[in-house]
Amino acid sequence: MKMQSTQLENSLLNSLSKKESSFTLGHSSNPSPIVVPGQTIGMLGGGQLGRMMILEGRRLGYRFVVLDPASDSPAGQVADEQIVGAYDSPMAIEQLMEKSDLVVYEFENIDPDTVRMIESIKPLPQGSDLLCWTGHRGQERKVLQDAQIPIASYQVVTSKAKLVEAIEQIKLPCVLKVLTGGYDGKGQWVISTLDDPFPPAEIIEKGILVEKFVPYVKEISVIVARGISGEMEVYPPVMNIHRNQILHMTISPAPIKEGIRERAEQIAYRLANQLQFVGVLAIEMFVLADGTILVNELSPSPHNSGHITMDTTNPCQFEQFMRAVTGLPLRKSVRKNTGIMVNLLGEHQEAFFEQFAKLPSCAKVHLYGKSVARVGRKMGHINFVGDSLSDLLELINEMSIWEPLSGQEWEAFVAIANIK
Ligand code: AMP
């Protein structure tokens, strides 16, 4: 859905008054909000991330207008207004800008050209830089490499012959990934021998990332917020368990040694400092048995693994995001308790509703207002909070909403650290 940016830009620049573009994003050490409570924030995208951003932003007194192609979107339901329209519709974008004092995007698959064009007219503190490369695995690896962030060895190839050459250099096992568009594990091939099925030629020709398979023992992620003035707040690492390549569970704090926690947070600070972004960035990392950390992926917005902060940490990632983009000072994040987030997917919905009334008070339910449940579709999440992670895990394991943890998943949970 790539938009014809020049055409759109011209039509919009002509139709909007010049005085609206006279804003500056100051990088002063004493930030003042660029929008104040009562003013309106326009949002590109109406998904669950947007919904949770708005719920926090409303507490701070902001108004919201959402642009999404689907009516009754999760974010639209809690906004003051929703414009139903495509992200590349000049009319819809013009409407969004006319109604907004500041614009944000809530998800990462938005076209950077659209963002760049809006940013030339309205304050859009997140900017378009991060979006230009976080949506492209090859470019993302290059940025990480240039920033001297530890990553698995990789190459980008566009032919079968070069692919085989790259595998010989990197050495099996390898993971092949499409450069754009693949998410939640789609568009990936694990190659253990040269006889394993390769992606079709037409996919290879578009560009494939060949990456060393990482024998990780844990997947962790770190959320970092960065404000307009450059101030930063890092949330302690959480551990993630995926099922069918979709995030199943996040454990907070991550059961890792203190030294690994420190290094993971340092990586996050270093990256945030070098990237100079505004908003919230999630950094997914692999932890190896010897304690080595390799960064796997970045996400330029609040992240599913950060949803646990809604009930364990003050402020949560969504409030911190709203503070960052509006120019309010960030708050030091303070952890209130331990917690485990479990995603509610379409296939869990029926069992969940059977249990809903019986859930204990430590289960904080967050539903996204989606009316159609499909397998793999994120319908909501539950944050289980308390003092003991193992008690919470036992409680979750006894519920008949999800499959209990496998032996391997338990191992990731108990390995390395002493669990309280
Ligand atoms: P991604 O789409 O890159 O986040 O990958 C989805 C999932 O595939 C990750 O959460 C890992 O479980 C797995 N994965 C991705 N890259 C690698 C790798 N280089 N080695 C081992 N597992 C990987």
From TrEMBL:
The keyword Cell membrane does not apply. GO terms for molecular function: 5-(carboxyamino)imidazole ribonucleotide synthase activity; ATP binding; metal ion binding; phosphoribosylaminoimidazole carboxylase activity. It comes from Croceifilum oryzae. GO terms for cellular component: cytosol. PANTHER family: PHOSPHORIBOSYLAMINOIMIDAZOLE CARBOXYLASE (PTHR11609:SF5), PURINE BIOSYNTHESIS PROTEIN 6/7, PUR6/7 (PTHR11609). Belongs to the PurK/PurT family. It catalyses: 5-amino-1-(5-phospho-beta-D-ribosyl)imidazole + hydrogencarbonate + ATP = 5-carboxyamino-1-(5-phospho-D-ribosyl)imidazole + ADP + phosphate + 2 H(+). Pathway: Purine metabolism; IMP biosynthesis via de novo pathway; 5-amino-1-(5-phospho-D-ribosyl)imidazole-4-carboxylate from 5-amino-1-(5-phospho-D-ribosyl)imidazole (N5-CAIR route): step 1/2. The gene is purK. Catalyzes the ATP-dependent conversion of 5-aminoimidazole ribonucleotide (AIR) and HCO(3)(-) to N5-carboxyaminoimidazole ribonucleotide (N5-CAIR). This is N5-carboxyaminoimidazole ribonucleotide synthase.
